[in-house]
C-alpha cells in the first residue's frame, strides 16, 4: 500500500486543484510501487511524476500571478525548490546510475505533500475563492493588486 493515498483530508473543495492533487498522489504512488522494479521502470515512473509536477506547479503559479501574488512569494519558491530536487535526482539516476537520491525523494515527497496542500494550497484555494477567481477563464470577480501578496497565501503566513 502506498505511503500516501488520496483522501478527503487532502481535498480543498477547489475542483481543478483537487483533480491535479489527486493525479499527483496517484503518480507518486506509481513511483513508490516501482521502487523495487527495474531502474528504467522506476526512472520512467518518476519522470512521469516530474512532468506532471512541472505543469501542476506551473498552473498554481499562474493562478497566484492572476490573483495578486508577487512573483517572488514563498509558495512559488517552494515549488521551485521541489522541482529542482526532482530534476537533480532524475539527472543523478540518468547520468550516474545513482538511484538512492531518487528513492529518497519518493519517500520525502509523500511526507511533504500533505502539509503543502493543507497549508499553502489551501491558502491559495481560499484566496481564489475570496477574489472570485475562475480558473477556467482566468478572471477575478474582485479587483486584485498585482504583486500585493508576498507570502504563501496561508492564513498562518505572516507576510
Task: State the gist of this model.
By secondary structure, the chain is mainly α.
Could you describe the 3D structure shown?
The chain has 159 residues and is mainly alpha-helical. The protein has one domain (14-130): Four Helix Bundle (Hemerythrin (Met), subunit A) (Up-down Bundle), CATH 1.20.120.50. The chain is 64% helix and 0% strand. The chain has four helices and no strands. The chain has helices spanning 15-33, 39-66, 74-96, 100-130. Helix 1 (15-33) packs antiparallel against helix 4 (100-130), helix 2 (39-66) runs parallel beside helix 4 (100-130) and helix 3 packs antiparallel against helix 4.
Key traits:
metal-binding, Four Helix Bundle (Hemerythrin (Met), subunit A), 4 helices
Briefly, what CATH class? Mainly Alpha
Q: Give the beta-strand count.
A: 0
SS content category: mainly alpha
Tally of alpha and pi helices:
4
Mean pLDDT: 91
Radius of gyration: 16 Å
How much strand content do the residues show?
under 5%
Estimate the helix proportion, in percent.
55-70%
Task: List unreliable stretches of 5+ residues.
Answer: none
Q: Could you say what the CATH architecture is? A: Up-down Bundle
* Shape descriptor: elongated
Distance between the termini: 39 Å
Order of helices and strands: HHHH
Domain count: 1
Q: What's the CATH topology label? A: Four Helix Bundle (Hemerythrin (Met), subunit A)
Main sheet overview: none
Q: What would you give as the CATH superfamily?
A: Hemerythrin-like
List the helices and strands and how they pair.
Elements: H1 15-33, H2 39-66, H3 74-96, H4 100-130
Amino acid at each position: 500500500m502506498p505511503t500516501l493515498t488520496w483522501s478527503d483530508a487532502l481535498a480543498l473543495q477547489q475542483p481543478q486543484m483537487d483533480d491535479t492533487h489527486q493525479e499527483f498522489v496517484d503518480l507518486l504512488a506509481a513511483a513508490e510501487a516501482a521502487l523495487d522494479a527495474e531502474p528504467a521502470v522506476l526512472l520512467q515512473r518518476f519522470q512521469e511524476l516530474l512532468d506532471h509536477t512541472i505543469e501542476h506547479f506551473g498552473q498554481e503559479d499562474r493562478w497566484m500571478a492572476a490573483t495578486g501574488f508577487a512573483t517572488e512569494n514563498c509558495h512559488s519558491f517552494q515549488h521551485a525548490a521541489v522541482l529542482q530536487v526532482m530534476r537533480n535526482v532524475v539527472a543523478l539516476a540518468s547520468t550516474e546510475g545513482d538511484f538512492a537520491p531518487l528513492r529518497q525523494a519518493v519517500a520525502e515527497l509523500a511526507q511533504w505533500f500533505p502539509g503543502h496542500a493543507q497549508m499553502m494550497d489551501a491558502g491559495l484555494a481560499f484566496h481564489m475563492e475570496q477574489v472570485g477567481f475562475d480558473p477556467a477563464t482566468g478572471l477575478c470577480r474582485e479587483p486584485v493588486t498585482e504583486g500585493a501578496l508576498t507570502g504563501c497565501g496561508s492564513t498562518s503566513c505572516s507576510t
